[in-house]
Amino acid sequence: MAEIKVNPTRMELKKLKARLVTARRGHKLLKDKRDELMRQFLDVVREAKALREHLCRQLGSVYSSFASAAALMDPRMMTEALMLPGVQGELSVTQKNIMSVYVPQFQYHAAKAADTGGAGYGYAFTSSALDEAVEQICAASTQLVRLAQLEKTATLLCDEIEKTRRRVNALEYIMIPQYEAGVKMISMKLDENERGAQTRLMKVKDMMIRAQIEARRTEREIDE
Length: 224
Hints:
Layout: H1 10-72, H2 75-81, E1 87-98, E2 101-112, H3 128-223
Antiparallel strand pairs: 1-2
Helix pairs in contact: 1-3
């Protein structure tokens, strides 16, 4: 750890003490921020994990329904049935502030076609398995948007946690020890200078006392 090079003066000591107080206060605030970010991150990760598992099961059912429909229907007829969308979606994006981290908020609005009821095709020449698959994928669209929002939020929170952790470590292991070592060094130097000055004053006092004694002795000798 590199030491801070400063002049051992009382002014520098006062400045270092003020910096040390500020660094300790900042260290506490950053630790509190890191802990809260970790709590928020874990909540988001748990929700995203549960939602992903649910969607995996739901999409597995969708794929099974599509596979059944593909086996029962003519491929050309199935392609024509799925050519036109029966649902039009609108995605709006806003932001939310979580501990100085701006995370996205997705709002998905789906509007079904009035003439087809949201399927996009007629029901006369299609399989019920295809109808079920289309309904399931439409129902899962909102949850997919929610999952995308959660995973993006988790990524942003993870980046901010890493930045905050580095700042906390820099304060805890570099800056605060440097300031403490600087305060200790200046205090020891000032104490040493004070002891040296006191020692010199005592020597001067002793010299003055001896000079006075010698002067009095000389006066007595002269008087005799």
